[in-house]
């Protein structure tokens, strides 16, 4: 007589129990998100300072480079990183409005739609923000003041969208009783089920961070933007002096 025992996979059970949720956001998207936010915040803080103009320009270039990476990654990257998901997040607006008119107001759904709309608009605003800033910096067509006005308009629009995005995260976190900002740090969303992201691609995130830090560090050490800024400032001063000289004549 032999006894047959079936081993219980206790270790596997404990691992499944301790699993911190599903992987829903890969590392490159998270790296982009935080570097994008850091660049915008730094550029916003230094926007009105002549002393820090070089830093402002450097962060503006970095902001534009990150935007280009996200657009490319959103087109050829994995499904969960595709920009088309932004459209899917707001595609239910028509249904929500019809239900609202019928007296069925879904506040969490409204906040989710608002977050998707804010992110989509922010991506749309970022491109003209960078282009207008660059056009004003190189004084394209001699319309420096006009480009600066356009740049400021899109900067203020982007800041309004950022504030709306943050406010909606807080509101939705309260309504759903969980921290919705945490997945952008950890990549994981609480709950059972398979990972939506099959590959974390930490190596690509590392390349993005290294390229960002390398560019900002190189610009800081070279002082290239500050030198260009000073040269442009001298050229503008000379231009103003020529005008005054002509007036005196």
TrEMBL record:
Keywords: Cell membrane, Membrane, Transmembrane, Transmembrane helix
SUPFAM superfamilies in UniProt: Transmembrane di-heme cytochromes
Comp. bias intervals (Basic and acidic residues): 233-249
Record keyword Transmembrane helix present: yes
Pfam families named in the record: Ni_hydr_CYTB
Transmembrane segments: 29-47, 59-76, 110-134, 154-175
Domain Cytochrome b561 bacterial/Ni-hydrogenase residues, every copy: 26-187
Membrane association type: Multi-pass membrane protein
Compartmental location: Cell membrane
Region named Disordered: 225-249
PANTHER family documented for this protein: BLL0597 PROTEIN, NI/FE-HYDROGENASE 1 B-TYPE CYTOCHROME SUBUNIT
Listed name of the protein: Cytochrome b/b6 domain-containing protein
The species this protein was found in: Pelomonas caseinilytica
